[in-house]
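Researcher: I need the complex structure. Ligand is calcium ion. Inputs:
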Amino acid sequence: MTEAKILVVEDEIPIRKLIVFNLQRSNYEVIEAENGKDAIQLVQDQSPSLVLLDIMLPDMDGFEICTKLRETHPDLPIVIVSARGQDMEKITGLELGADDYIVKPFNPLELTARIRSVLRRTNYNGKKQLPVDIIKTGPFVLEMKTQRLYKAGRLIKLTAREYQLIKLFFDRFNEPITRDVLLDEIWGINYFGDPKTVDVHIRRLREKIEADPSNPEFLKTIWGFGYCFHGSGQEE
Ligand code: CA
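Model: Output:
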């Protein structure tokens, strides 16, 4: 029985074979693409549970693919694989909504561990049914089953990461949460990126949920501490 289907997008055959070998050994079903066009087609046709995305590809770069995939599959977990120094700033900013990134050369065991962690956090695996459950506060309704957020009845498109963030805030209304706790809970205890990643995601989330993102009504900054979501606390 396989764990989940992973799409590996990588044009360098030896690297791709190494990744595929290790994923298969960890019981993942693996499909492969060597360019962006095939990758986008495979996501449409075969609904992978996660995409492992190289940056330097022959037809379009990984950032462009990530953006295109996000348009059609906002919840699909995407892990970017990049050579050291390759547009690092852009990757650490995670402006494109990737769920994690891994730097080449990587330890194959770490790669599978990171994939497992992303899959667990994002809960995307189609086989797994989440319980029917909703959280309501103020104008917001969060549907856990579909991982959808509505504000005043209007659907707000969230990435997998943004869903995890909002879910955490909704579980802890009116409770100040530090950046470190957010990093541990959302990005995982072994995350080695920049803590500013949290701020970038909070800013993007505010742009989606706040009427005036620079003067937030719900998702407030606690200076020198972290963030706090002001909710009415009514659940279910
Ligand atoms: Ca490449």
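Model: Summary of the prediction. The two ends are 35 Å apart (CA to CA).
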